[in-house]
Amino acid sequence: MVRRQIVGTIIAGLLITMMLLLSGCSGDTGSGPVDVIWDRDVCTRCNMVLSDRQHSAQVRRPAGDASRGVVKTFDDLGCAVLWLDQQPWRDEAGVEIWVNDYQTGDWIDARTAHYVTDRQTPMQYGLGAQSTSTPGSLSFADAREHIYRVEQQFNVHGGNLDHDDIPQIR
After folding, report:
1. CA 110, CA 107: separation in Å to the nearest integer?
2. CB 48: neighbour CB atoms within 10 A?
3. Is residue 27 over pLDDT 60?
4. Which residue among 23, 79, 89, 92 is the one 20 to 30 A from 59 at the CA level?
5. Are 145 and 81 in contact (CB under 8 A)?
6. Is the pLDDT of residue 165 over 60?
7. Where are the domains of the chain?
């Protein structure tokens, strides 16, 4: 009887240890971009499938407690910027914005990236991110203004999305 209790305790201990180890292997460290399931994940703003590996974006909101942050995916930097600007927590410390380098597909920090225009992007905001500055490239602040100019000029999302809370850039 005692032997069964010892074996049961050992097995229970091993199972708990395995569960803890497996739960720590989710791959999400709580910061940085997450893996995208291409042609399956959808844009948080416009619901288009993410398939363009050179122009997608992610926004990570830090969690308010010790849990990992929430990540939202976008098919175009324009969707990410417009969506984030409508969030009440947009200016909180720790909010991360990631975008694909249009040349390599690698994820880079959107706020430190440099942007070229006249790119063919999923929602036609036309910005390609890159990690290095080139003549004529835009900063993140300039890219944000570019997105609002495109949105105001062409009303890219027409009548299918609410634009009441989008600030106007002049």
Report:
1. 9
2. 15
3. no
4. 23
5. no
6. no
7. 30-154
Mean pLDDT for the stretch of residues 72-83:
97
DSSP string, 98-160: EEEBTTT--EEETTT-EEESS---TTS---EEESS--TTPBPHHHHHHHHHHHHHHH-TTTTS
pLDDT above 90 covers a percentage of the chain that reads 64
Closest CA to 60 of 73, 79, 45: 73
| Contact of 131 with 114, CB cutoff 8 Å | yes
Residue at token pair 């992610």: 58
CB atoms closer than 10 angstroms to residue 35: 9
Separation between Cα atoms, residue 137 and residue 134, nearest integer Å = 5
Mean pLDDT of the residues in the chain: 83
